[in-house]
Specification:
The complex is a heterotrimer of chains A (546), B (427) and C (233). Chain A contains 17 helices and 21 strands. Chain A has 546 residues and is α/β, with parallel strands linked by helices. Among the domains of chain A are: 53 residues, Oligo-1,6-glucosidase, Domain 2 (Oligo-1,6-glucosidase, domain 2, Alpha-Beta Complex); 82 residues, Immunoglobulin-like (Sandwich), CATH 2.60.40. The two termini of chain A are 21 Å apart. By secondary structure, chain B is an alpha/beta fold. Chain B contains 18 helices and nine strands. In chain B, strands 1, 2, 3, 4, 5, 6, 7, 8 and 9 form a nine-stranded mixed β-sheet that branches. Chain C has 233 residues and is an all-alpha fold. Chain C has a domain of 103 residues. The chains are: A alpha/beta (546), B alpha/beta (427), C mainly alpha (233). At the B-C interface, helix 6, helix 10, helix 12 and helix 16 of B face helix 2, helix 3, helix 5 and helix 8 of C.
Chain lengths: 546, 427, 233
């Protein structure tokens, strides 16, 4: 594929999400670091990913896995130094990979100097950088996000004897965006990293920036104004950089975060993710079709980001009660697997380690409209540890080989930031990069070929989507089109073989070429096109008119 | 007229697309697109609310009018088209249409649904009528739930009725079937019932589909098949029994043909089922059970009595060839009574019905004529009922019905004796 | 003269002996045919009885009302009737064949005419029988329908139907037998046509308003009357 000379690289990207702590430890302290990550960049380049999204690596008390930031312009000492980061950045760029980092706008750690100042006295200049109240009844009715641990959005500060507002953990006080100084400070932070050369920011917890009485304190117009402001500054000073919104909401609400192409470049499509899992379990395409029908058009320079799993729980916020119950019953029968209206499991265990289902879901991820994000370890089918508390079960060390500590670290096992997965099915002895590299037919090899195939065509990242709706509801079929490229994707969502007749009259005369094997299939005509698919099988057909 | 083959290519193609299901609901639309559309909506809502996780399909058996197919829309239900975030339906609800060249008989419609249930390995099935004006999602669930959750094989409906509604059912069909089949199922003849896939397969394999009683009214035979073959049967309360809002009531002759004639035919073809049956067993009931309401109705009792009298007089020779002489004599004696003193005693009514049943078996006259000849006597019985219970409460009427049931059971040996006797030549 | 008389007597005697000698064998053959016919008739009667009892014709006949007609006419059941009929027909046929062997010309001619007439008689009987059965069946059906519809004139309707079918049946039977064919056809046409014409005038012209009102009332009442009766199911 010849990259287009535009600034829309994020449309063609395949993003790899990881936490530097989990990837590779170079100094035997039991914690992954940037030096170790740099050593593993060849692996990522070989995999075919074109961008890396780094979870927070800033100085932090680490009470929320780094999302409680105590210093925005440094690197946590456990992960190395700023110099290490710069070296990593340079190495990544030299391998053609872009780097996206976190930008937690909504809140800081209570250990951040800003908050320490703000709470020190009511007259402190930084007092107004946070949201304070003498009572805890302001913004009544606003929902609590971390329902398992928090009972209120207000926390009592014994130092300044008043309440402060926090939408997340109580040790993460929300910043006050009604104070212009806050925005300016954050812009300076962004500039710091942009000047170093990073390629994009993922803005965490975007909907909650601004509070207003009588509202849900989410998705307010003022929030959008802030984003537009930042975007404008970014485009002026740093063209070609990308902003990614984390807004866990219905597509129609997330649409607002694209603005008229003048807010975020990309945003996560949260509601699609659980529906992919649901469709496979139900053996029915309806959940996927329904959510796409609810997904509005977005500006041409914008993109959805889609994913299967990530560092958080598999969120079930954007589903109905019936759907949530169903997901719990099917994917989280053990209540230990459930947290915060979600499921804290990895992809492979949720698929019962069924290779066919894992491939099917990854096939959907790579062929549906949007930029795919692969969570580290899912490319080798890593397992999880639901007994680790919070969401740490899906944040275990990367499994590189069958040696001690899975090749992640040479430290003593007790020193590791988290124990490695070591059960009989997903343990590092069975599931690791080295063994999969040696096997021609491993998941890793297959993922590599899948990503390579996707990277060969722009249609997946930039194309339109047209759903064919055959009578067999177990088959999800759609056509992607972009310029001269036309691809037909047919997925069997069921555990049994299926026959499907596709109405392809509008593509009459095209010859389908199966993209993995490059074999020709019979030409499309007027009659319904009959295909048969094995359990969980899928086809990608390039349609050529010869 | 020969009927179409059940499995047309188009139907098979539709069934292939649906695949295995948990639930199947069959409707037989009769050139009424509005009613069919309402039925679809109610059924889909029923699936949404009560069976959101189950795989389901609606089978519409229609024929002779494209309007019904247009009302049914595409193969996927309405819910597939909606894009409202709050829709509770997890799965696609399929609609399958079996389109015949002429409107199919109820027997053919049922057979089509049974075939679909068998092929799709459905666990729970129901038949509903688009003509039921108060078809609600809960009604659908009440038919399916006992099969799906409680593993029953046959679910008969139970209704709230006005106290003078359904007198044929309450004074003949129910007590007689209860006495003969030893089963407490009240509504053998209804437009809606539920059944299991297992029972569907068993019924499908019986070679009775060409018989006229099965073509016109197959549900009682299905219930009798279930009862006699030790399938688990129950009743489920569905609410008010309402007829279609437009048009006059059903023709009494046709009703008798389809119900009483059908019951006699079933008795004749399944003698071993009821001849050996001794005592009736209660049937599990889901919901509050039958309720009678005391709503006043506008009935012309005088005309009913007149028709009874006229019928007995005009049909004297015919009745003479059907009834036992003693029974006939008693009827002739009560017909002379005045309206205000007229009573058609329960024991006499039971003997009358049993005489007719035995004569049907022996075919003393044309069977269709025999069934019609019972109508004037039925009118006499309901006149007596109306007079006796005009001011009775629902409980009192229920009690009287129960006594009638006991009388049917008590006189069963009389029927058995008549049934097995050699035919007497009557001139 | 005595000689002539003697010769005449001898001649006559010789002729008689000749005739007897000529006739006797034919007579014996006739007897043999008749006896054979009797045996065949018995066998056929027996076979037919078995076949008819297997087909349960008696029950069908009972249902159709034919048995009742037979009982009124003091006739045996239809199975017996048919098997006896076949017995007599068969034997009668053999008797006629036997008689034809005798070679008596005038007798042969009569037998021939009788044989030609027999099928018509048979068909005539059949028409009569079917007609009577039909009259019985239809009149009963009309009676039941009228009684159940609450019509007061049920008996009149019943007898009208029965009478009409009888007239038709008798006419057809007589026509089949060839008895006063032209007279019967003409008489039937006149009677039937007049009846229909009269009804047409009565309803079409003379009582059109009444007819209209009667029809309206009947059709309207049918619906109203159904509503005045309790719902049976």
């Amino acid at each position: 594929m010849v990259p287009l000379k535009d600034n829309l690289w994020y449309k063609d990207a395949v993003i790899y999400q990881l936490h530097v702590r989990t990837f590779c430890d170079s100094n035997a302290d039991g914690v992954g670091d940037f030096a170790g990550l740099t050593q593993r960049l060849d692996y990522l380049q070989d995999l075919g990913v074109t961008a890396i999204w780094l979870l927070p690596f800033f100085p932090s008390p680490l009470r929320d896995d780094g999302y409680d930031i105590a210093d925005y312009t440094a690197v946590h000492s456990s992960y190395g130094s700023l110099e290490d980061f710069k070296a990593f950045l340079l190495a990544a760029h030299s391998r053609g990979m872009r780097i996206i980092i976190e930008m937690v706008l909504n809140h800081t750690s209570d250990q951040h100097p800003w908050f320490k100042e703000a709470r020190s006295s009511r007259e402190n200049p930084k007092r107004d950088w946070y949201v304070w109240s003498q009572t805890d009844i302001r913004y009544e009715g606003v929902g609590i996000i971390f329902v398992d641990t928090e009972t209120s959005n207000w926390a009592w500060d014994p130092v300044s004897k008043s309440y402060y507002w926090h939408r997340f953990f109580s040790h993460q006080p929300d910043l006050n965006f009604d104070n212009p100084a806050v925005l300016e400070a954050l812009w300076e932070i962004m500039r710091f990293w942009l000047d170093l050369g990073i390629d994009g920011f993922r803005f965490d917890a975007v909907p909650y920036l601004v509070e207003r009485e009588g509202t849900l304190c989410e998705n307010l117009p003022e929030t959008h104004a802030i984003i537009r402001d930042l975007r404008k500054r970014l485009d002026l000073a740093y063209p070609g950089k990308m902003l990614l919104a984390e807004a866990n909401n219905w597509p129609v609400n997330v649409r607002a975060y694209f603005g008229d192409g003048d807010e975020f470049h990309t945003a996560f499509h949260f509601p699609l993710m659980p529906r992919m899992f649901m469709s496979v379990k139900l053996e029915d395409r309806k959940p996927i079709i329904d959510i796409f029908e609810q997904t509005p058009e977005i500006p041409d320079n914008c993109q959805w980001c889609i994913f299967l799993r990530n560092h958080d729980e598999l969120t079930l916020e954007m589903v109905t009660d019936i759907e949530r119950d169903y997901m719990y019953d099917e994917y989280a029968t053990d209540k230990t697997m459930r947290i915060n209206r979600g499921i804290r499991r990895r992809l492979a265990p949720m698929m019962d380690n069924d290779r066919r289902r894992i491939e099917l879901l990854n096939g959907l991820l790579m062929s549906m409209p949007g930029t795919p994000i692969v969570y580290y370890g899912d490319e080798i089918g890593m397992g999880d540890n639901i007994y680790l508390g919070d969401r740490n079960g899906v944040r275990t060390p990367m499994q590189w080989n069958g040696d001690a500590n899975a090749g992640f670290s040479t430290a003593d096992p007790e020193r590791l930031y988290s124990p490695v997965i070591s059960n009989a099915v997903y343990g590092y002895q069975a599931v690791n990069v080295e063994s999969q590299k040696r096997s021609e037919h491993s998941i890793l090899r297959w993922m590599k070929s899948l990503i390579k195939l996707r990277n060969s065509f722009q249609v997946f990242g930039r194309g339109s989507i047209l759903f064919l709706k055959p009578a067999n509801h177990r088959v999800l079929a759609y056509v992607r089109q972009f310029g001269e490229e036309t691809v037909l994707v047919v997925n069997n969502l069921s555990s049994s073989a299926q026959a499907v007749e596709l109405d392809v009259r509008q593509f009459k005369g095209h010859i389908p070429i199966e993209m993995f094997g490059r074999n020709l299939f019979p030409r499309f005509g007027d009659a319904p096109y009959l295909l048969t698919l094995g359990p969980y099988q899928f086809y990608w057909f390039q349609l050529r008119r010869i | 007229m020969a009927e179409d083959t059940i499995l047309a290519d188009d139907l098979i193609r539709q069934l292939i697309s649906v695949g295995e299901v948990d639930l199947i609901v069959g409707i037989s639309s009769h050139n009424n697109a509005t009613a069919t559309s309402h039925a679809y909506h109610a059924i889909e809502q029923g699936f949404q609310q009560h069976f959101s996780r189950q795989r389901a399909v609606i089978v519409n058996v229609c024929g002779g009018n494209n309007g019904d197919r247009d009302a049914s829309g595409s193969g996927l239900g309405d819910l597939a088209e909606k894009n409202v975030p709050s829709v509770n339906s997890l799965r696609t609800v399929h609609r399958v249409t079996a389109d015949f060249s002429v409107p199919p008989s109820p027997g053919l419609a049922l057979r089509t649904v049974l075939t679909a249930a068998d092929l799709l390995r459905a666990r729970a099935c129901a038949i509903v009528s688009p003509g039921t004006t108060n078809l609600t999602p809960d009604r659908i669930a009440n038919l399916l739930m006992p099969v799906f959750r409680e593993k029953f094989d046959f679910v008969a409906p139970l209704y709230t009725r006005q106290k003078f509604q359904g007198l044929l059912t309450r004074n003949l069909l129910y007590p007689m079937s209860r006495a003969l089949l030893c089963s407490g199922i009240r509504e053998l003849y209804s437009d809606e019932w539920g059944f299991s896939g297992r029972l569907a397969t068993a019924c499908l394999n019986q070679d009775v589909w060409h018989e006229e009683p099965i073509r016109t009214r197959p549900e009682a035979w299905m219930a009798i098949s279930a009862i006699s073959s030790d399938f688990r049967c129950c009743q489920s309360f569905l609410g008010q029994k309402l007829q279609s809002a437009t048009g006059p009531g059903p023709d009494i002759v046709e009703v008798f043909r389809q119900t009483v004639g059908n019951l006699f035919w079933c008795m004749d073809s399944r003698q071993s089922t009821w001849l050996d049956c001794k005592r009736s067993e209660p049937v599990q009931t889901f919901g509050p059970g039958q309720e009678l309401t005391s709503v006043q109705t506008d009935l012309d009792a005088g005309r009913i009595f007149e028709m009874f009298r006229n019928g007995v007089a005009e049909l004297g020779p015919i009745l003479g060839s059907i009834l036992d002489p003693e029974t006939h004599a008693e009827i002739n004696s009560i017909v002379a009574c005045e309206e205000n003193t007229f009573r058609f005693r329960s024991d006499l009514w039971v003997r009358t019905v049993y005489d007719f049943a035995a004569s049907y078996h022996h075919a003393v006259i044309n069977r269709d004529h025999l069934v019609q000849a019972l109508i004037p006597l039925y009118r006499g019985m309901i006149f007596s009922f109306l007079m006796e219970h005009s001011h009775s409460s629902a409980a009192e009427i229920e009690s009287a019905n129960e006594k009638l049931c006991v009388e049917f059971e008590r006189q069963k040996p009389y029927l058995t004796e008549k049934w097995q006797a050699k035919i007497e030549v009557k001139s | 003269m005595r000689q002539t008389i003697l010769q005449g007597l001898v001649q006559a005697y010789n002729n008689l002996v000749h005739m007897i000698a000529d006739f006797l064998p034919r007579f014996l053959v006739m007897l043999i045919i008749i006896v054979l016919g009797l045996l065949v008739a018995f066998v056929l009667k027996y076979i037919l009885r078995i076949v008819l009892s297997l087909t349960k014709l008696d029950r069908v006949s009972e249902e159709a009302g034919a048995s009742r007609i037979l009982r009124i006419a003091h006739l045996p059941s239809i199975t017996a009737l048919l098997s006896r009929s076949i017995f007599w027909l068969t034997w009668f046929g053999f008797i006629l064949i036997g008689l034809s062997v005798l070679g008596i010309a005038s007798l042969q001619e009569q037998i021939s005419r009788l044989l030609q007439f027999l099928p018509e008689v048979f068909v005539g009987i059949l028409i009569l029988f079917v007609g009577l059965m039909t009259a019985n069946f239809l009149s009963r059906a009309v009676l039941l329908a009228a009684v159940n519809a609450g019509l007061r004139s049920a008996k009149i309707l019943t007898w009208s139907i029965r009478f009409l079918i009888w007239i038709l049946t008798i006419s057809m039977t007589l026509e089949e037998l060839g008895v006063a064919r032209q007279t019967v056809i003409s008489a039937f046409s006149i009677i039937f046509g007049a009846l229909m014409f009269g009804l047409a005038i009565a309803f079409g012209l003379g009582g059109q308003d009444l007819a209209r009102k009667a029809l309206e009332k009947y059709l309207g009442n049918t619906n109203k009357e159904r509503d005045k009766e309790p719902q049976p199911l």
